[in-house]
Amino acid sequence: MSLIAFLGAIELGLIYGFVALGVYLSFRILNFPDLTVDGSFPLGAAVAAVWIVGGGDPWVGTLLAVAAGGMAGIVTAWMAVKLKILNLLASILSMIALYSINLRVMGRPNIALLADDTVFTPLESLPISRYIVFPLAILVLLVLVTLLLNRFLNSEMGLAMRATGENPRMASGNGINTSIMVLAGMALSNALVALGGALFAQSQGSADVTMGVGTIVVGLAAVIGGQSLIPGRSILVATLACLFGSILYRLMVAVALNSDFIGLKAQDLNLVTALLVGFALVLPRFRRRRRAA
Amino acid sequence: MMRRRILSALLGSLMLNGIVLAGIAHADSVSLGITQIVEHPALDASRQGVLDKLAEHGYVEGDTLTVDFQNAQGDTAIAAQIARKFAGDRPDLVLAISTPSAQAAAAAMRDTPIVFTAVTDPLMAKLVNDMDAPGGNITGVVDAPPLEAQLQLIRDMFPEAQRLGVAYNPGEANSVSQIEKLQELSPGLGFELVEVTASRTSEVMGAARSLAGRVDAIYVPVDNTIVSALESVVRVGHDANIPVFTGDNASVERGALASLGFSYYDMGRQTGEMILRILDGESPGDLPVGTVEMLELILNQGTADRIGYTIPAEFEEQAVEIIAP
Known about the structure:
The complex is a heterodimer. By secondary structure, chain A is mainly α. Chain A contains twelve helices and two strands; from the N terminus they run ααααβαααααβααα.
């Protein structure tokens, strides 16, 4: 793996770090398996891309993307909480609907941003290579968002949200409005995912309606993988573990892309990635057992 | 602590491996990185066309040509990672097959020459600003089907036809730009367009059935989703005696009545020619974006018999291939 490929994997891992945080929030904190992310990731990309191509400020476009993602989360939560549709099914409905909505938002399946000013454009004039400065900038934003998220989850409302996910009956018995908590949590979760989508489109130069496929899989791999490699009960450790998982996943893909030297072909990529991630998951357990024996 | 050490050792050894391999790849031969969004007969045929053309001119894969072929398995994030891998490996030239792969390559590399193929609208995709003088490090060949010639073929074979059904996937950039052009062209040729959409292959059957009884002919553009499930459209055509025309020639063998198009293999060969010129020292920015000029008419006699259509002699003479029943 070359340095540029390595940094590229880090950059994508950091961008998908926002997705990992979002999935952590829905899947771990709210105990809500949420497939909406497959639609809210491209939604974020679509909204930002349309705004930017229309001549708007890229930061405003990114904020609009975040807001749109939040709304997608609210719709899913509303179907689950108010219409009493099963969580998973509600999120599937949102995911399917968002495919059409994303096409509507963009007006066509692919919007290119290769020639437009994005949030990354000011960084390109710096004397440092973009391969280094892009991931650094995303890292700064990601650390900021992670710290804010930690602060929120340790606030009074955050604790109420965690209680809602842990034991809804007990939470509402203690006077917590669990419906509001699910709505707010899902909004925040999908807002984070949409932020990831908006940044992805801007760093990669295009928004495509198909780019959301499998977002949930990557998100879950990051959350579950990261947490099993870095176990810990505190929110800070857990969120950092998710980010670590996201970066590790991308590194594994980068390694898989270089696997031709052992006779593997391009079509084996997903299998190799799955094996590498699986290996990374069982490795620590295997070592622990050996040490115990 | 232990865990961290293992991980860094693992990463270290992998990076070392990569560097050693990159060293071998650059020794004494031309290196070509190929990034392709997904494996699919048409895209594979274009890749083969490129490799065959290069081989004829002395760049033989495994000998004087080192090929690093990567396919993103339909995932745009992986396409981005492949582009970054090439940005780091610095092959002599990158071949990007399909729009998303080309966009990812263009975003990641500003110096390495990039040649795209199987891109329908490079202006819309912002790969180039000017088709005649692309500038920068990128040029290529477009796969825009000759829609006007194809509509004219339907008009000539079926002078009475009025309503023309088209099935496409609204999620494919290439299809949407074809549909927009069809909408522009059809009134001039006396067609009224009836559009149906399918977002995945399982929906194609339903979409095709909804056309039965509403249209006089069906046209299938170059659309990955519809072409993957072409048999569903063909069956509807057979059952309702509606002629099915396709934008790509390969589909006629699968039961469409006729197509006036180009082969992806030929497009690949034309792309290969462009690559040869760049390897000879020309700059990609100076090479105009190419279109495939050679059109071939292919007819299916079995389908004609099925729907009770007698192919006029003039078309039989024109056809480069008539598929026997």
